[in-house]
Design goal:
The protein has 2 domains: 75 residues; 76 residues, Arc Repressor Mutant, subunit A. It is 84% helix and 0% strand. It contains 7 helices and no strands. The protein starts with a helix and ends with a helix. The relative contact order is 0.08.
């Protein structure tokens, strides 16, 4: 059976992407790491960059591939920084609400209880392991390495669960608030 023109093009593009992955991974990881400041998350974003590249449907050439990789990386960095800023704001909001609950103002107490219920219901929507990792990280302040050692998981697995949990909770909070 003779390969189709489309199949040959896709095969050539996959070869270009593989070659770019082998030669550019370190540089892309460094680019991302310098911008976000976290090397372990830069590794994840680098992988995501090349995964998105594989899903790219338009024709890629060796001349345009490098620019496209850095464009994807830049967009991932922007998304990450937006998410990070949103997470910080959400933590501050929850923290502020939790401390205001100490006062005896009934309205503040009700709002604080509502936010706790929302967060609890969102956590119930996560898998048991993902919710546990999220609680340990957010509520107990444990690092990914500490959680990994305690739950006998790899650090990368913990980071992936934490990333996905934050992503799910962020989307749900966006709808709820």
């Amino acid at each position: 059976m003779k390969p189709t023109q489309e199949h040959l093009i896709r095969t050539r593009q996959d070869e270009l992407i593989t070659q770019a992955y082998c030669t550019m991974t370190g540089a892309v990881r460094g680019y991302i790491s310098r911008r976000i400041g976290y090397t372990h998350e830069a590794e994840d974003l680098t992988q995501e960059c090349f995964a998105r590249l594989l899903e790219y449907q338009t024709l890629l050439t060796a001349q345009t591939l490098r620019n496209l990789i850095y464009t994807i990386a830049r967009n991932l960095v922007i998304d990450y920084l937006r998410h990070h800023a949103h997470t910080v704001r959400a933590r501050e909001y929850f923290s502020q609400r939790a401390t205001s609950a100490i006062s005896h103002n009934t309205e503040e107490q009700v709002e604080s209880n509502d936010l706790e219920r929302i967060e609890q219901s969102l956590l119930e929507g996560l898998s048991e392991r993902r919710a546990e990792i999220y609680r340990r990280s957010i509520h107990q302040g444990q690092t990914a390495e500490e959680i990994a050692m305690q739950l006998d998981l790899s650090r990368r697995t913990v980071e992936n669960h934490l990333f996905k949990a934050r992503q799910q909770i962020r989307e749900a909070l966006r709808c709820a608030l």
